[in-house]
Amino acid sequence: QVQLVESGGGLVQAGGSLRLSCAASGRTFSSYAMGWFRQAPGKEREFVAAISGSGKYINYADSVKGRFTIFRDNAKNTVYLQMNSLKPEDTAVYYCATKTTWGSMALTNAYAYWGQGTQVTVSS
User: Fold this and answer.
1) Which of 60, 64, 109, 120 is the most exposed, having the fewest neighbouring CB atoms within 10 Å of its CB?
2) What is the spatial distance between Cα 45 and Cα 92, in angstroms, rounded to a whole number?
3) For strand 10-13 and strand 118-123, is the pairing parallel, antiparallel, or unpaired?
């Protein structure tokens, strides 16, 4: 069983920055790819970014490329999402997740473990 706890969300003005953290339990953190997803009110959960266990492979949604950076510290069992140049359309609950099956990093059904989410609100 893997437990994930996100933190770092909050209210920020457009153009600002936030860093989200996701702390994972378990001793095999480095074996798993990790992803960040988000869900805005009335919308489906969507892929934001993902990183392989070693950190070698990284994917981003087109909507966040060049603004967001995903990275991980396997010694701390933590994955991060640095979000710069935030826009009001980035407002959502952000979730981290552990990828447990083969396939695209962008698919929600490839992830078995999810955190409780952290709210990010970007004001215009």
Assistant:
1) 109
2) 9
3) parallel
